[in-house]
Amino acid sequence: MVNLEDYSSNIENQWCPGCSNFGILTAMKHALLALDKNPEEICLVSGIGQAAKLPHYLKCNLFNGLHGRALPIAVSINIVNPELTTIVVTGDGDCYGEGGNHFLHTIRRNPDITLIVHNNQIYGLTKGQASPTTDPWDKTRLQFEGVELEPLLPLATALLHGCSFIARGYAGDIKHLSELFVEAIRFKGFSYVDVIQPCISYGTHTVSWYKERMYKLPDDYDFNNKREALIKTTQWGEKIPVGILYRNDKQHRLFGDHFKETIFNGKLTELGFPPHQTIIEILEEFR
Amino acid sequence: MIDRSIIISGSAGQGIQTVGYILAKTASKAGYNVFSWQEYESRIRGGSSSYRIRISDYPVNAPFVKADILLSLDKKSNEKYLPLLKEDGIILDEHQTGKRIINVPFVGIAQQTFQNKLFANVVAVGALGAVIGIDPDTLNKIISSQFSRKGEEIVSKNIAAAAEGYRTARKSCEGICSWILPKIEQQYYLITGNEALALGAAAAGCRFMAAYPMTPSTGIITYLSKHKDRLEIFTEQAEDEIAAINMAIGASYAGVRSMTASSGGGFALMVEGISLAGMTETPVVIVLGQRPGPATGLPTRTEQGDLLFAINAGHGEFPKLVFAPSDPKDAFHKIARAFNLADKYQIPAVILTDQHLADSYFTVENFELDNIVNKSYLADPETIGNYRRYQLDHTGISPALYPGQSQHLVCCDSDEHDEYGHITEDLELRKRMVEKRLKKFELLRHEIMLPEEYHISGAEDVFISWGSSKNAVFEAVDKLRENKAKVGAIHFTELMPLPEYEFLPGKNYYTVESNATGQLGKLLRIEYSINVKNHITCYSGLPLDHEYIIERFLHG
Description:
The structure holds 2 protein chains of 2 kinds. Chain A is an alpha/beta fold. Chain A has helices at 21-34, 70-80, 92-98, 100-109, 154-160, 174-186, 207-213, 226-234, 257-262, 276-284; strands spanning 42-46, 61-64, 85-91, 114-119, 122-123, 129-130, 165-170, 191-196, 214-216, 240-247. Chain A has one domain (4-284): Thiamin diphosphate (ThDP)-binding fold, Pyr/PP domains (Rossmann fold, 3-Layer(aba) Sandwich). Chain A has 10 helices and 10 strands. In chain A, the strands form 2 sheets. Chain A has an 8-stranded mixed sheet with strand order 2-1-3-4-8-7-10-9, with helices on both faces. Chain A has a two-stranded antiparallel sheet with strand order 5-6. By secondary structure, chain B is α/β, with parallel strands linked by helices. Chain B folds into 3 domains: 3-173, Pyruvate-ferredoxin oxidoreductase, PFOR, domain III (Pyruvate-ferredoxin Oxidoreductase, domain 3, 3-Layer(aba) Sandwich), CATH 3.40.920.10; 191-371, Rossmann fold; 452-555, Rossmann fold (3-Layer(aba) Sandwich), CATH 3.40.50. Chain B has helices spanning 16-29, 75-81, 106-114, 120-132, 136-147, 152-173, 193-203, 218-226, 228-231, 241-253, 264-280, 307-312, 328-345, 355-359, 427-445, 470-482, 519-528, 546-555; strands spanning 3-12, 33-39, 46-56, 67-72, 85-93, 101-103, 189-192, 206-211, 234-237, 257-262, 284-290, 321-323, 348-354, 361-364, 411-413, 452-454, 461-466, 487-492, 494-496, 508-513, 534-537. Chain B has a 7-stranded mixed sheet with strand order 9-8-10-11-13-12-19, with helices on both faces. Chain B has a 6-stranded mixed sheet with strand order 2-3-1-4-5-6, sandwiched between helices. In chain B, helix 10 runs parallel beside helix 11. The chains are: A alpha/beta, B alpha/beta. Strand 2 (61-64) of chain A pairs parallel with strand 15 (411-413) of chain B, so a sheet runs across the interface.
């Protein structure tokens, strides 16, 4: 049995004191504990940004790569070793801006990984520029007159492209968030949790702005209903729904299934080196 | 000595590739050395392209310019390629008649005899076979295997069409050409650079390839995908080249040998990923199939314009391997070597090819599988104790494990990191990490092969070349030496790091390269302090050939 202390990292934390990222980190540890995952069974993958530093603060395997590029790294880790619990930890700039193309195409692939986006609607590490989810006409340290662009609707985008598990959590509600993480990590397929994470240094909204607008989806909300989910995933502003917005519980194909069924079912590391004879036989076809 | 050159020309979509491939394969099966290359336009239909075949009873593996036989499937192509026909060359044509013209109505025969003009190509193959004097049984065997997937009826119709073309051309040949290619008891491999790279990677145990389609590198992932059941390799078409290299790096971090491939523009997008591989010390192999740039350039043609780009690819300072194989046999062995060295030193390795090497069919006498020694360079998790992915020691090579292999945690970071792989701003540690990474480069240098010397002793003029132009350069040396010229050559295939090598004094050196600025010359100046003043360059998009090299050498 694993215990919470097993995930403790002694790396100095670089987040701002009081940052809501701490809530996400705690929720993640509780979720992994609930799933009884040993540190060596977990692989956290991240890009660049304050969110992307999270893997260093949780004892596990980690690959902290380039800005925007966590998803392609995680996709291939999952193909090589499907037994690892592979989780991408990223932010709104990292995932929806720099890595937007990978976000779209990873949804299409449906790998068995979990995507967690710390969405603070701002660039924190570069000190306060607009992100793809900053609300229109919010003023920032670069968009002095306000943001002229329409915000991306990442949850709706995910829904339209066939993502089978879409949730929104709140960094301030650790218990609820860790429950969402548990569901997401357990889910077979690409599971995606966007986490409202108010930025206390550069955010365009206060914590209370979010609190006044957020509401938990009621128990009788049918998250299997795609039409209803389209309404919920586009809802933002006056009301912000939190919880599992959409979930497709039907059997669906995972990225790599075809390879597993027809060629090799296991960790690719088990394949080792091919016998020379295999190559010699194929080369004969060129004579 | 037999040395026959053929140009098959037509517009895109007419099927000159089918005609060319069947003929090349037949000549190879008959025991001859065959070299074939294509030059074509970046379009799906129309234009004028050519498929060129050189058949000889001694090894050549280099292009020629002047042809003995010109077969054109349309008038425009005939006009375009006629200047390349030797004075005593023969034309094989649908409509024209005249001296040294063999008239075979390919389309006419296909329509009249087979009620389908699609057979015109195979009629042309048969006619060409007759002109060069190839054994019809061998031709039939190749046609059978080429069409076997389409059923017996199609096979027999194609054999009949080829026979009709053969018969018609043979009749007209009387008194014009008396060439014959008697069967030789010899079996060579006929293989492209891309196929050889794919198989070399597979032989080295590559289990993962991601790539975004880009001419001329697409053939590698295509081949591996087609044969993934036998080779047990996972292939994925990435959404872009950035994803492709990151996927390859992720797979390598997770514990398998992996690769990607692209051409100049796509490789440019991968450059940040190469730097990531350098920083995280993740082995990965990247094939850069060059084509003429800048930007989109000439997408379907050839050039060696990215040498310095490949050498310098990746921001920051880190060790990297750059190899440029000279032909498919070299490509097969070189990529396997790159996989093993990349693993041993935990570095990215770039294989520089070009459209000429990627797409051309070369004759290979033998592959030396026994020379491929695959070794796992992973540490032993049982004995390693307190595991640090970036443990500092005198070699700079830290113990590699993969996540999930054992209880040891494997942490990699693109930020500067401590021995455990965690982000750091400790500037003293930073210095030690830079030194650690660069130490590997010095060790790697001792593994690098010397350039191949060709008739160096006694040579007054020496060509220095690299990559796919080897056979053309060496052929130029041979021809010049036949005329008593004191010429030799030095050919590089391992370009980063460069080996310890001494250029003999008192010789006139010339770099011979398919680029405009003599990039190898610049590299040699930096690495060996040798100032090469003469450059034979070619940047038309066509490959170097011996006639061009000799012409530029003799007349500037």
